[in-house]
């Protein structure tokens, strides 16, 4: 048997049996081998668990296709932040002005609620640390799938706000690879490589590696670093095996090591007369596998597992904190189908551990066995339904039930989707403020309840010829949000604590999207309206949720002829945001981000140049970043509500070889 694994085969490894949806599959497989074709309706998504074609799935899944992944990789080869940030309804929020770390907020929901997956596996942990987003290169990605709104019914408590699934490239039956070299005007360098080849008729393998460096930058000469120094190395091999009896096996391992320095420059002092270095060393090791075996013509057995160990060495001024995060997943499921239905039933066991060498009172070990199921039903040619539910038995927060129901109605060129879901999140010490300040001033967690949310959305899409439009209305109600509270304890070494908010957080919004293609020119424009507020049940007061712009918009125009040239311009608008604990202002300014990308290709060699932040927007042009005095949590800076890197140019070369 000749080895030939397509992206469809990978999606089969992840969730769906190869014979699912009989009568359609030959056409789908043939089309998906030609994934480079512009017909997005033939893209098969896997994040919804049953591997449906994106336009036929009742669960709305947004896909960043390979063409867009390759474009964004030229702009930011070192991490995936820009890749996801420029998607409608997705906001990458900087959580540490010292180290530059960030998390992903979906439709205004808190970043800690977003589950980040790699090929359906939580290789970055069940609760991904904010810095993790900046440590994942996009080099080997084929596409990215995004589910917004509660996905706890499919993935448990870590997916209360949604899922981002990174789909890797799969080897073809010929050797192929690429090397990308990049340098920036801010003294940053990236080298990434991807190699893939058949090992035998039934096995293929790939390996991705990268080395990344950024020199420290104090752009406003105030003694505080606006861009942290880092050195990072990553490597990830993958193996794909396909048996003659229909069995498939996917295995991967990964390693990442990084040293990152922020805080004061050498010789600089904070307002208290002391230097404040904020550094972090990271080492992450992970592994995962997915095995699938047909049981008969209509049933498939799927077994998967993953493990992740991450070690951190933190420095917050004079305070040193060393800790270790461990994450484990074991899951087994059976998938079946009939002419109109497809279903999955499975058992899962997840474990999350945290150990601190200095502050052992924050150690925790969550053990979460769970039972999940999903049923997709094609009621008619125009109506599809999906019902999923999960019960988790959490060792700390008890039994949790998470349902989700979705529907799709497709009359002619229209698509109307609706979804409603509930979910939960298990609180930990690592809310945004603590990730940037450390545990030294935090009181031990006490009497916290799980955070819960109810999310709903309705999506209207219309497609005709080369024009695609959509309108999405969404809403979320969140209870028991964990937040940081100051303690009135004079002389105590513990000055802050984490509590459940007294009231409910409510998020209402709308997304508008327009895509148009004319010959080799693509035009995309989007608008996002978000009304996010929280109500205090004690006082009855209502206040906006901080760092959530009410209005944001974007426009991208790209002229591309494959194998020849690419020229693109993008403009993104971010409206005003409510600010907290900022002595300089209570509301941010609105700002624009403009970028220009160009690439020219000669054979297998592409030269590119990218200019970011053409207007040279920097938050420190308006206000200082450093606080007049250290906050109760130990933090020395305000939140980042704008950009802080200024105008930047990066340029380099991508060399492709083989198939």
TrEMBL record:
Record domain TonB-dependent receptor plug: where: 60-163
Cell compartment(s), UniProt: Cell outer membrane
Keywords of this entry: Cell outer membrane, Membrane, Receptor, Signal, TonB box, Transmembrane, Transmembrane beta strand, Transport
Gene Ontology terms describing biological process: siderophore transmembrane transport
Principal subcellular localisation of the protein: membrane
Protein name: Ligand-gated channel
Occurrences of domain TonB-dependent receptor-like beta-barrel (ranges): 252-614
Originating organism: Pseudoalteromonas phenolica
Family per similarity comment: Belongs to the TonB-dependent receptor family. Hemoglobin/haptoglobin binding protein subfamily.
GO cellular-component term (any): cell outer membrane
Membrane topology: Multi-pass membrane protein
Transmembrane annotation, as ranges: none
GO molecular function: siderophore uptake transmembrane transporter activity
Domain of life where this protein originates: Bacteria
Record's signal peptide: 1-22
């Amino acid at each position: 048997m000749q080895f030939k694994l397509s992206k469809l085969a990978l999606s089969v490894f992840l969730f769906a049996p190869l014979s699912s949806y009989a009568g359609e599959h030959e056409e789908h497989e043939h089309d998906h081998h030609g994934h480079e074709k512009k017909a997005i309706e033939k893209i098969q998504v896997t994040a919804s668990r049953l591997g449906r074609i994106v336009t036929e799935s009742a669960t709305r899944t947004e896909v960043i296709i390979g063409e867009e992944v390759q474009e964004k990789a030229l702009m930011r080869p070192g991490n995936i932040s820009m890749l996801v940030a420029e998607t409608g309804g997705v906001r990458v929020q900087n959580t540490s002005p010292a180290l530059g770390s960030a998390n992903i907020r979906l439709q205004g929901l808190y970043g800690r609620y977003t589950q980040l997956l790699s090929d359906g596996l939580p290789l970055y942990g069940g609760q991904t640390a904010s810095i993790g987003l900046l440590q994942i290169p996009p080099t080997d990605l084929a596409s990215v799938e995004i589910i917004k709104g509660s996905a706890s019914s499919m993935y448990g408590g870590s997916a209360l706000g949604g899922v981002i699934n990174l789909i890797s490239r799969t080897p073809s039956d010929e050797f192929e690879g690429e090397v990308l070299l990049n340098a920036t005007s801010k003294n940053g360098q990236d080298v990434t490589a991807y190699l893939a080849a058949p090992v035998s008729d039934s096995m293929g393998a790939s390996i991705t590696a990268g080395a990344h460096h950024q020199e420290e930058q104090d752009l406003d000469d105030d003694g505080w670093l606006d861009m942290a120094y880092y050195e990072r190395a990553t490597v990830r091999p993958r193996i794909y095996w396909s048996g003659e009896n229909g069995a498939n096996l996917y295995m991967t391992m990964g390693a990442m090591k990084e040293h990152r320095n922020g805080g004061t420059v050498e010789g600089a002092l904070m307002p208290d007369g002391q230097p404040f270095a904020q550094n972090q060393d990271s080492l992450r090791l992970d592994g995962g596998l997915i095995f699938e075996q047909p049981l008969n013509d209509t049933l498939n057995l799927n077994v998967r597992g993953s493990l992740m160990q991450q070690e951190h060495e933190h420095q917050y001024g004079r305070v040193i904190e060393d800790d270790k995060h461990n994450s484990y997943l074991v899951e087994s499921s059976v998938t079946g189908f009939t002419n109109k239905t497809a279903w999955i039933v499975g058992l899962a066991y997840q474990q999350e551990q945290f150990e601190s060498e200095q502050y052992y009172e924050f150690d925790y070990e969550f053990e979460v066995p769970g039972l999940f199921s999903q049923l997709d039903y094609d009621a008619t040619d125009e109506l599809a339904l999906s019902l999923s539910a999960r019960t988790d038995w959490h060792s700390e927060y008890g039994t949790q039930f998470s349902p989700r129901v979705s529907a799709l109605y497709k009359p002619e060129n229209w698509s109307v989707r609706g979804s409603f879901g509930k979910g939960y999140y298990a609180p930990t010490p690592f809310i945004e403020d603590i990730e940037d300040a450390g545990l030294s001033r935090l009181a031990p967690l006490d009497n916290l309840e799980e955070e819960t949310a109810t999310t709903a959305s309705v999506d209207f899409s219309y497609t005709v010829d080369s024009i695609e439009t959509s309108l999405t209305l969404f809403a979320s109600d969140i209870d028991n949000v964990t937040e940081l509270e100051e303690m009135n304890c004079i002389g105590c070494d513990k000055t802050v604590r984490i509590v459940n908010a007294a009231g409910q957080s409510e998020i209402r919004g709308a997304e508008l999207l327009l895509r148009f293609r004319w010959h080799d020119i693509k035009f995309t424009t989007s608008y996002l309206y978000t009304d996010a507020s929280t109500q205090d049940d004690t006082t009855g007061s209502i206040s906006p949720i901080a760092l959530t712009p009410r209005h944001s918009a974007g426009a991208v125009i790209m002229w591309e002829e494959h194998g020849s040239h690419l020229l693109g311009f993008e403009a993104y608008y971010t409206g005003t945001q409510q600010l907290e604990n900022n002595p300089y202002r209570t509301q941010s300014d609105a700002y624009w981000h403009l970028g220009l990308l160009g690439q020219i290709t000669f054979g297998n060699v592409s030269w590119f140049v990218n200019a970011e932040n053409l207007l040279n927007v920097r938050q420190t042009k308006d206000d200082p970043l450093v606080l007049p005095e250290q906050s109760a949590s130990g933090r020395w800076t305000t939140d980042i509500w704008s950009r802080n890197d200024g105008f930047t140019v990066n340029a380099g070369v991508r060399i492709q070889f083989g198939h």
